[in-house]
Sequence to fold (329 residues):
Amino acid sequence: MKYGMEIAVAALIIVFAAVFLVQDAAIQATLGDGEEAWGGADGEAADLIEASGYEPWTEPFWAPPSGEVESLLFALQAAIGAVIIGYIFGYWQGSRNTT
Amino acid sequence: MHIMEGFLPSPWWEIWFLVSLPFIVIGLYQLNKLVQEKREALPLLAVAGAFVFVLSSLKLPSFNGSCSHPTGTGLGGVLFGPCIAAVLGLIVLIFQAVFLAHGGLTTLGANVFSMGIAGPAVAYLIYKAGTRAGANTYATVFCAAALADLFTYVVTSIQLALAFPGTAGFLGAFSAFAAIFAVTQVPLAIVEGAVIMLVFKYIVQLKPEILTRLDLLSESTIQKLREAAA
Fold:
């Protein structure tokens, strides 16, 4: 099958999204007021370490001032990568067609 | 998810810098050689680096109520080995530490070791073993990338458990950190393995000559893979 692998990967991603939605519904049902699920694993590890009384000895010298600015920079990072991947695969595809 | 700024006490952050340094130096040397001798592989190097950029910026929700992101370094590890992958990982980690306060400059050594060296080394070894054993190429790439992703976070858990054994001792601390990092990572590792497998298929279709040039696949294997896809 020509697109067998594409279909399999797409199916896997759909399953991944579906399990997330089911799991999210279950988590939201038990969440109290003001609590937020789906935080970062690094933050959870930091909480665990700080619970033992450890204080980080240095802070990031600059942090994105808001969640919006942070998501802008993460999106920018993904866009830079995606442009490069698209450019090179397109270049390869184009040079195959012309030779 | 990387170790955050300030969360590795001395001497651990210095130790991980020292451990990572030789890999970066060898990686720069290998990169220099690649640029001089195998220029046609440079676009592939850019793709491998760009993949780390894209995948490590996507914070995905896992099944246990927390988020983490894939690493993308498995592709670089398979294609160019762990030392060059370490350089690619270093670039992305500096970007994230400086602009995003994600990870940190003092924890850079430890994060480069887990994401740039340990993970890609696993990917590289699995790929070599798989091709030598004659296993299906795409299945091998899937396992290499997925396990590289997972192993990155096992190493992160080891690094934190070494620095913070607490009252539970190293093993107790390790299982606590692994429960946070590695368990979250399992579904993401599977997705990452699948995506990188797909990209590898496109490289085989579009630019197989680079793969033979890098001694990754023999011409007969490429012939077989291309016929199967046609």
